[in-house]
Design brief:
Helices cover about 30% and strands about 25% of the residues. The chain is an alpha+beta fold. A hairpin with a 3-residue loop joins β2 and β3.
Length: about 300
């Protein structure tokens, strides 16, 4: 299975953030995002990591950014480390899992699109019959396909869970015109991606996008794109409304943690080898189905 890369160290580099998954470095004019093999659930970083996971997330995001390059600008400047500035190009462990990206002014709202009723959307629907203020038909079941995709923004929480908000609340945060532009762009991207994925055996139940503004004030797609971390991916051949679904994303890890009896307070239980392997195989299969090829690691991690 290989060794997980859980942390990075670049002597002479400028590390500015070490998040749940990414290590972020700055250069004079850009950022370098490094996706490690760390994995988190319920706001805890788990042990051990998932070997090669960071490369899958990075390369799948790059695939989607390039796929939609004519729809919306994205933050990518370079994806090969030989195109990175010094000293980063001297670190082969970064290859395949790192990108050089624009510095942007992040828009402080997550743009979520839902085509199916799951997760926090399902919980909110059961309580109120609506999601983010959007009234939905009565008697929908868990995992039901919605009549049409809906836009359900969320605030970005620095700690804990993000909070679903209405587009009216989003308008108060970013302005009415910007809220409408982001809603329309989110639904356009989601609808096209969901159609593409469905033909390849994956239902994208929901996903979140993040956008920023460049120096000219133009909207740029940033962070990650349609990955198993930012989306719910369900196999089309096993889909059945009325229950939770098998998945290609880290819901598999969440389900194991729920069944373990863990209180969801740190420390989290150690993931057993079969859960690590099962998670990795699901990420690899999602990559294969969506891109049409198996992922061949650029370098061995570790």
């Amino acid at each position: 299975m290989g060794t997980s890369l859980l942390t990075t160290s670049v002597p002479g580099g400028n590390l500015v953030s070490r998040g749940k998954v990414r290590d972020i470095y700055t250069t004079d004019e850009a950022l370098i995002l490094v996706a490690t093999d760390r994995i988190s659930a319920f706001d805890c970083v788990l042990s051990p990591g998932i070997p090669g996971r960071g490369e899958i997330l990075t390369r799948l995001s790059t695939f989607w950014f390039e796929h939609f390059a004519n729809t919306v600008p994205n933050h990518l400047l370079a994806t090969e480390i030989e195109d990175f500035p010094e000293p980063y190009r001297q670190h082969p462990e970064l290859a395949g899992r790192s990108v050089l990206v624009q510095r942007l002014d992040p828009i402080p709202v997550e743009c979520v699109a839902r085509g199916y009723l799951a997760g926090s959307g399902w919980k909110e629907y059961r309580a109120s019959g609506a999601v983010c203020g959007i009234e939905l038909p009565e008697d929908l079941t868990e995992s039901a396909r919605l009549p049409e995709p809906i836009f359900t923004p969320a605030t970005k929480a620095t700690e804990g869970h993000d909070e679903n908000i209405s587009i009216e609340r989003m308008s108060e945060i970013v302005g009415g015109e910007m809220a409408v532009r982001l809603r329309d762009l989110t639904l356009e991207l989601y609808t096209a991606a969901a159609d593409y994925a469905r033909e390849r055996g994956i239902l994208i139940a929901d996903t979140k996008f993040e956008f920023g503004l460049d120096q000219e004030g133009d909207i740029v797609w940033m962070d990650e794109a349609l990955t198993p971390d930012s989306s719910r991916f369900w196999p089309t051949d096993d889909y059945e409304p009325g229950r939770s679904q098998s998945s290609f994303d880290k819901q598999y890890v969440r389900d194991w943690l729920e069944a373990s009896g863990w209180s969801k307070e740190p420390p989290a239980p150690t993931l057993p080898p079969d859960v690590v392997e099962g998670t990795l195989s699901r990420y690899r299969e999602a990559y294969r189905l969506l891109t049409g090829s198996d992922l061949v690691p650029v370098t061995a991690s570790g």
